Amino acid sequence: MHAWPASEVPALPGQGRDLRIHDTATGGSITLDPGPVARIYVCGITPYDATHIGHAATYNAFDLVQRVWLDTKRQVHYVQNVTDVDDPLLERAERDGVDWAALAEQETELFREDMTALRMLPPRQYIGAVEAIPGIVPLVERLRDLGAAYELEGDTYFSVEADPHFGQVSHLDAAAMRLLSAERGGDPDRPGKKNPLDPMLWSAAREGEPSWDGGSLGRGRPGWHIECVAIALDHLGMGFDVQGGGSDLVFPHHEMGASHAQVLTGEFPMAKAYVHAGMVALHGEKMSKSKGNLVFVSRLRRDGVDPAAIRLALLAHHYRADWEWTDQVLQDAVTRLGHWRAAVSRPDGPSAEALVDEIREALANDLDAPAALAAVDRWTVTQEQQGGTDAGAPGIVSRAVDALLGVAL
Question: What is the pTM of this model?
């Protein structure tokens, strides 16, 4: 599966700072110190209705991570998956009377277009669950051989008790885990499971559903968590720098994935940092496909909204915050974009050296994009009210905003 084209990242004078970021697993801030190649895995979409503002906010956060690393002169090895076979996708396809694979490809292509428009840097590997199946089956078989998996009526489950570190990503109690498991794709009430929290590794073939050869597992399709584990281990290995996604993935997805990988490899932890973006609401409720309260990036673009304004609307909120999308949020971003573009269009301006330093420091401090935007706003006000004599400043500001914030002026 192919990703989307990369926009050019302008080179800036000087060098960025190492990223201090909030780690869900420890509950505190840690300074990431990757090697020459920083490794990041971000969980991708289930392509049955893409791309809403909640998606965009999440991928914007991890685009900033990449940009901070690139500014430190590192390379970035970024991997993202597409869950192109899963219950929600199959249910939507059946509801609409369309082929599930065609629906997945249609929505994945729309996602690519939206990411391109928003200047999100693409992953080096963009891998669908279906194409990962040949690598998933051996992992499930190995978990079974290790005694960490068991069969139940043809399905194969992972035993959470096989991982002594289970629970160290989310730090939730059993009751909270059980509730979230039921809400987020698990089946804690299924009779016969060793532990209600045990997640599906391989679902046996069911009538009317797609299935694949699972070797000794029989025909079926993979569970959600093992999909990401197979892709991450194949392309990044254990101990990669950042596991990322929305805060709704902390449990069960990232908790279960970590346990799968840790049992498979005997190593801990799967990732050095677990980083999660907040949720976006509309009309007082979390924006979600199940509720249907979605604002789509593609629809905004069709309505003539500049993608740079959409990106500025996202950047106006700290990535870990839960916030609400409103018409005013978008209007404020449109206004800000106009001021910025007018400021950098002048032949000279105030010195930009301190501004670049402020943007770098803000982003290194747990991706504080609102602080970075405020710094650019201050430079813009000075430009509007006083002007300046530095002929190179507008160009430097334009390149810095593009390179570090992904906004083309």
Answer: 0.96
